[in-house]
Amino acid sequence: FAGYISQVLKNYTDHACDGEYVSLRCPHRTTISIQSSFYGRIVPSHQMCPSRYPYSYATLIKEDVACSVGTSLQKMLDECQDRRSCRFLVNSRLFGADPCPGTGKYLIVWYKCRPNEYKSKVACEDDKLRLSCKKSMVIAIYSAVFGRTQGGSLECPYQTLGMPRIECQSATALQLMIKRCHGKRRCSIYASTYEFGDPCYPGIRKHLNVIYTC
Question: E strand or H helix at 88, and its extent?
Answer without folding.
Answer: strand 85-89
